[in-house]
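Title: Prediction job returns without error message
Component: structure pipeline
Severity: low
Priority: P3
Assignee: unassigned

Description:
Job completed but the reporter wants confirmation the result is attached to the right record. Sequence as submitted:
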Amino acid sequence: MSGANGFSTAARRLLSLLADGGFHSGEAIAASTGCSRAGVWKRIEELRALGVEVHAVPGTGYRLAYPLELLDGEAIAGALTDAAAESVGGFEIHHQLDSTNSHLMRRAAEGAPTGTVCLAERQTAGKGRIGRDWVSPLSGNVYLSLLWRFGRAGFSGLSLAVGVAVVRALRAQGIADPALKWPNDILWSRRKLGGILIEVTGEDNGQYAVVIGIGLNVNLPDRHAGVIDQDWVDLARIPGGAGVSRNRLIAGMLSELAPMLAGYETTGLAPYLDEWRSYHGFDGAQASVQQGDWVRTGRIVGVSAEGLLMLACEDGKVREFASGDVRVRPL
């Protein structure tokens, strides 16, 4: 387990104390955290500056707007399947990082083993596709990255297979009807619930270090979501989703990902393609596909065996699009 970083030890202690969602008096907080009463107020303000909503009631104390489940490496490891436990190369859990993907790319260059998992309570520079920012407030969501190594071209279509693994994990937690949008969005009722970001770098031994990033909205307050440019949802707003444990959900995703990744160079996308198609939230929809400076419009008619998006364009031709800087927007 990695040490936490990014904000003060006293603020981390305070967050852990308040995570139950109940009221705690200033006096009790001071005694528990080793702060003066003035120090308690300073730490409260520090948490608020980090985006945590803390309510103060005179004569009663302080509490969070809603309980938080902090990341727990032991709880996650204990909930893994045996196959996943054998494949996971160790956990790094941070209170704050620029980006779990960026951090794990740096760790890959330092020789971190395949199967290394990186989690953070908060990201200061969370990354989406095509240079977008990923909204990453403290302790509300899942920010997970996993390092895996492949031989040349051994990971074609991987983002679609990862999407299948995420949907399986959500369904196992009781979330009904999660869906996917090509190539890497996780949906519920056509609203964005999460996303996948895969980053790749070549290594001297001819292998490729692949970092698989997964972001999921678990409890995303409205005030943090103003910059999101599409319809979104979090688990807290989905029937049955409010009680989902972040730690169990993370363990479930890793338990689905590990066996899939272990055999992917042999199997490729094929074993997962029909299942991906069954989760496709926009099959048959009218859409625009943007790549660079030009836009094609038409109807989505499926995904090819190679994982390419198939669009029946207005000129009558069916065109295939690879991932990368392709953007799909339902009309």
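Comment from assignee: result matches the submitted record. The domain at 286-330 is CATH 2.30.30.100 (SH3 type barrels.).
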